[in-house]
Amino acid sequence: MRVIELKESITASNDRDADALREEMRIEGTLLVNLMSSPGSGKTTLLSRIIEDLGGEWKIAVLEADIDAQVDAERMEEKGARSIQVHTDGMCHMDAGMTRTGLREMGTEGIDLAFLENVGNLICPAEFDTGAGKNVMLLSVPEGDDKPLKYPLMFMKSDVLVITKTDTMPAFDFDLVRCTERVRRLNPDIRIFPVSAKTGEGMADLENWLVTAVRDWKAGL
Amino acid sequence: MRVIELKESITASNDRDADALREEMRIEGTLLVNLMSSPGSGKTTLLSRIIEDLGGEWKIAVLEADIDAQVDAERMEEKGARSIQVHTDGMCHMDAGMTRTGLREMGTEGIDLAFLENVGNLICPAEFDTGAGKNVMLLSVPEGDDKPLKYPLMFMKSDVLVITKTDTMPAFDFDLVRCTERVRRLNPDIRIFPVSAKTGEGMADLENWLVTAVRDWKAGL
Q: Does ipTM top 0.95?
């Protein structure tokens, strides 16, 4: 397991870089999924579960972006996924250039599904297109159903919202209907999957969506 | 309740601005506490409890910084605290200039204890001195005990760590001893208070610390 240190790309054209990377990944047949959320909302645990469930069918890789530490990439390798840890030099997000560097260092040949586990942050990552084919955000039940009101851009930029840790609903005052209404007001097309990676509740629906997304990506849809 | 829209201060000298604001607050006898954490770690609920418990003894005000919404400032006013909502124009943190503008708009005459509820973000707010007399961070039990490994700067910059939502310990795999060791390795002098604003557990110790901090601030200590 390697750790690489990145600096912010010196480019005024992140959007162009992102489009170019998306096109490269399309040609390679690798779907890159950008996973965004607050710190501690369960990205790594969700990924562990997905790798367990889909790792037989698809070749999966994980690019772990953090300011420091390498615990997440180690967990991914234990699960049998190719993984690399990227350190962002204190940066609060990943851009397309950093993502490309990480993917090239890790290698994506033969990979069907690559996850970028973005820096834990509900704000900055929403402002930078990474070149991913799909943007997926997590909101955990303990964070509360008012987050769409406070961090609207992230909800607007995401193709999918995964509401995590649903097994802890009894311990928190989280109203799923109210949350869904708030999210749909920002983004009517977003897909919403409430899941518990711990109990497995809701995982099948999310994984069916992922499997279809990979197939469509490879088919150029 | 007013809402003001802020832009980032055009200044290369945030540290100097911060020192100047701190000196002004010292002369006024108002302790400014900068409250930082991830989204959804319980800053607003903790503040509600503190205002209930200490609002008879001290005059408390709250500067609520968010990218959008004004639900938090409304909650603070319901509790009887002076409050103003600041919108950060998409910015992921508050700097000293933005903090001064917010405080001056709100007014701090006669206020003993002013809280800045910073933008929910474990990264960027640690990089900008706001001019606060004390920096307090929250880490909630659901976020996990590995956060000091991933977001070290925030733990290094804080005078106090409040571990919130301790009533949910049974639902999560959070090791308080391991967390404390990780934090102390980054910051040996930090004060750590595990609390539940819901049950009241641990609140007395935290509030005693706050009362002493206000007294010391007014005495010029």
A: no
